Amino acid sequence: MVTLDMNGPYELSTQKIDEVVTKTSPGNYALGYVQDNTFYICYVGRSDTDINERLKQWVGKKPNRYTHFKFSYATSPKAAFEKECRNYHDFGGAVKLDNEYHPQRPDGTDWKCPICDIYD
Ligand SMILES: [Zn+2]
Which residues make up the environment of ion ligand 1, defined by Cβ < 5 Å? Predict the structure, then answer.
């Protein structure tokens, strides 16, 4: 069974983000909603620098769809990129997720997706 391997879900609000995302760190997140105690994933993403700040940019963007988030810290931007790739593929890619595109590697890196050959 595939999992996000993240903490949450938590309500997507500025207050809640500050309460639970207390480190300034690269990290990963998923956005979605909760129904019958199940978290439904709509979007996966990452921040290379500050997961707290990135999550706050989503507050209120799709208030009916992105009501909750899950997150995890990453040890490096590269670890965050590789986890985002796994999350993206594990949960259906652009077909099932709101993500329109494959996760982007930062400019100037030669990092590869651990799952597919898009960057080969
Ligand atoms: Zn890939």
Answer: 85, 113, 115-116
